[in-house]
Design brief:
The protein is mostly beta strands. Helices cover 2% and strands 38% of the residues. It has four domains: 16-118, Immunoglobulins (Immunoglobulin-like), CATH 2.60.40; 121-221, Immunoglobulin-like; 225-343 and 420-478, no CATH class; 351-407, no CATH class.
Amino acid sequence: MLERQPSDCSPPGSTPSQIAARSVITQSALVNTAVGTPPSVLVRDGSGTPVAGVTVTFAVTGGGGTVLPAMPVVTDASGIATVGSWTVGATPGANTLSATATGSGITGNPVLFAATGLGFTIAARSVITQSAPLNTAVRGATLGAGAGRDWHSGGGHDGHLCGDRRGGTVLPAMPVVTDASGIATVASWTLGATQGANTLSATATRSDITGNPVLFAASGLAFTQQGLKLVGTGAVGAANQGYSVSLSADGNTAIVGGYADNGDAGAAWVWTRSGGVWTQQGSKLVGTGAVGAANQGYSVSLSADGNTAIVGGVLDNDAAGAAWVWTRSGGVWTQQGSKLVGTGAVGTPTRAFTWPSPPTATPPSLEGLETMVMLGPRGSGPGAGVSGPSRGPSWSGPAGWGRPRHFRVPLRRRQHRHRRRGLRTMVALGPRGSGPGAEESGPSRGSKLVGTGAVGNAEQGYSVSLSADGNTAIVGGDDRQQ
């Protein structure tokens, strides 16, 4: 017995009765570009068999695009008719295309296809508002040229990133071309020398792009002194407050070391900021267990949250040295455990020298000395002119040289540094900048910072520290008149 096999082709004379989309009916594409999948339809007869040879007319009905070929398309042996391409129009938005089979009574006529034309857009990819010191660069300005919500992957589009209105500069000076991800980034944007608002515009060169121009803003900041200089209470003698300083990450807690407090026992003072006002928090910190004049506060450091402090005492136990750790809870500072003395130290902690006899104008070499003896404050020989009260044991050296003074100064830090009395501390607000003091290195970051209230040659800048965001600085200075 013979059985009839189904066929993809309609028998001669079959009549088309239905038409339906064979491809996706909704797509999107950049303006003036073809959709990814050319529209196609399938024509069948009443029994569902594909009908070949049916004329199908594809026509653009909205959006202004084009379809190729412009002439009608005939269904193939499988009953399928496909356009060569459908290019959406030049205006972002809806585009429509109809497919109509020739004949009467055809169900589904016409088939409608839709495509969204996506215009090029430009938008900021980096932060659009920043702040930086005068004459310094911000972190960068990045823009993306894309279609819709997705960055255009083709790249290669020019973008102009123009300088700001306060005299800043942008590099490179020539237009920047987007990369394969549609991103264009300037190498640097340096703010102007005037405090206040700076603006930068980023403009893509395409005429069919939206979002032009993208505007970036940056505030040019300058440090300003916040309040008066910080001088902790409870100091005994000239404490050299400000010899070391440190700030918490948020800049609201400061610790100030004064190694010469109370006859070189040393101490540290903690300050907190609230509403722009600095207040001493508790009494000065003096660690227990010190042996001799420890010089506590010779070095200090704060944790990021400001709740843990470490205070170094370089001369504890005849310059063996030690450190004390303090923790804060509820605004109260408490020493945490005993002083810290590391194991494995090598060498004699201190050494001293005396002037030659007979006295000469040239002192012995100071190379490598950890402790040195300086001669009397107003003698006729070396050491003349050193101010401050005489310290140290009785002296029977060369006539006219006066009584010696003892200065324990790590010579690795400053070889010829003698003690300075009455160190004080200034707090400045603003961005990173050049440190106060007579000596400055590197490019200028605006005007130098000189705190008010200093007495005499304060040597501001002897110690410095910055908050994590760089907007608060603390500057230690040597105010020898107090």
